[in-house]
Write a structure and sequence with these properties.
By secondary structure, this protein is α+β, with helices and mostly antiparallel strands. It has a single domain, classed as Beta-Lactamase (2-Layer Sandwich). Helix content is 30%, strand content 32%. The chain is built from three helices and seven strands, in the order ββααβββββα. The strands form two sheets. It has a five-stranded antiparallel β-sheet, sandwiched between helices. A two-stranded antiparallel sheet has the order 6-7. Strand 6 and strand 7 form a beta hairpin. The longest helix is centred in the middle third of the chain and has 18 residues.
C-alpha cells in the first residue's frame, strides 16, 4: 500500500478463501462488506484451481483483474496455497469527450513486490 495511493485494501488468503492477513487504507470505507469479500475470495481460489488445468498450455497464471466502475479487484497467486487480493480505486481517466476509462493498474510494480517477498522466503 505504501507504493500506490490507489490501493484501498489488500489481503492474503488460503485456497479455501480464508483471510490470513489483511490491511485497509486509513480513511477508506469498504465498498464491499468483508463477508462478501470472503465469498469472492473463495470463488477466486476455485477459479485459480481451474486455471491451473491449462497452465501446461498457456503458462502459469500471473494475475486476474476484475474492473468495475468504482474499483478494480486483483487476485495474484503467491504459491500453490495462497492468493494475494488487492482492491484498487478505479477513478476514471477522461480520455475523450464522451468516454471515461478506469484507472490504469501498475501490475509491474505489484508483481515486482510479490517477487521480492517470495524470493525473501
Amino acid at each position: 500500500m505504501d507504493f500506490n495511493d490507489n490501493i484501498r485494501f489488500a489481503a492474503v488468503c488460503n485456497r479455501d478463501g480464508e483471510i490470513l492477513w489483511n490491511s485497509k487504507r486509513n480513511n477508506v470505507k469498504n465498498l464491499v462488506p468483508l463477508e462478501d469479500t470472503k465469498k469472492t475470495l473463495q470463488r477466486a481460489a476455485n477459479a485459480w484451481d481451474e486455471r491451473s488445468k491449462i497452465s501446461g498450455l498457456v503458462g502459469k497464471g500471473l494475475y486476474v483483474i476484475a474492473a468495475y466502475e468504482k474499483i478494480k479487484r486483483i487476485t495474484i497467486p503467491l504459491d500453490k496455497d495462497h492468493i494475494l487480493f488487492i482492491s484498487v480505486d478505479n477513478t476514471p481517466l477522461k480520455l475523450s469527450k464522451n468516454k471515461s476509462y478506469g484507472h490504469l493498474v501498475e501490475m509491474g510494480k505489484i508483481l515486482s513486490i510479490v517477487d521480492f517477498v517470495n524470493s525473501s522466503n
